[in-house]
């Protein structure tokens, strides 16, 4: 499935989900939850930098960094007991990592609806992932406008 507005690494993640049956997609989401990157040491002692995404059913906190090369890095925390939320955060952390500011800002707001999980999880959970993406994009805009 080709989408010129979607960066390759997000398109690969989406395609990986869409190649599976609905039940298998939940398993893949669980795998992503186990792959949520640990926080770098420079942020692990600074929870005050992170923004809670209150639209998510479980507590998830994100922080976006834009490096000197205008590359984006998304950091997130979510409890292991919340695999759906952790999975969504991990998809975005992995899918946005290293992209340019323009690529991140160009990710369509409906990306969470395109990965084939609308049949597997509740609309409330999909709204949470959509909020994660929206907050990440807002934080990117804030970082580059300073």
From TrEMBL:
What protein am I looking at? SufE family protein
UniProt similarity note: Belongs to the SufE family.
* All copies of domain Fe-S metabolism associated, residue ranges: 17-138
SUPFAM superfamilies in the cross-refs: SufE/NifU
Q: Name one Pfam family in it.
A: SufE
Check the record and name the Gene3D superfamilies matching this protein.
3.90.1010.10
The record, for InterPro entries, names: Fe-S_metab-assoc_dom
Coiled coil region boundaries:
none
Say which species the protein is native to: Orlajensenia flava
Tell me the domain of life.
Bacteria
């Amino acid at each position: 499935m080709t989408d010129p507005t979607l960066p390759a690494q997000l398109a690969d993640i989406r395609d990986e989900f869409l190649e599976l049956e609905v039940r298998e997609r939940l398993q893949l989401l669980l795998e992503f939850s186990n792959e949520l990157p640990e926080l770098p040491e420079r942020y692990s002692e600074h929870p005050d930098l992170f923004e809670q995404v209150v639209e998510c059913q479980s507590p998830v906190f994100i922080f976006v960094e834009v490096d000197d090369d205008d590359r984006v890095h998304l950091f997130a925390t979510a409890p292991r007991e919340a695999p759906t939320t952790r999975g969504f955060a991990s998809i975005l952390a992995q899918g946005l990592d290293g992209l340019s500011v323009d690529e991140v800002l160009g990710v369509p707001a409906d990306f969470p609806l395109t990965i084939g999980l609308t049949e597997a999880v509740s609309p409330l959970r999909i709204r949470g992932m959509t909020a994660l993406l929206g907050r990440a994009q807002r934080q990117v805009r804030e970082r580059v406008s300073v």
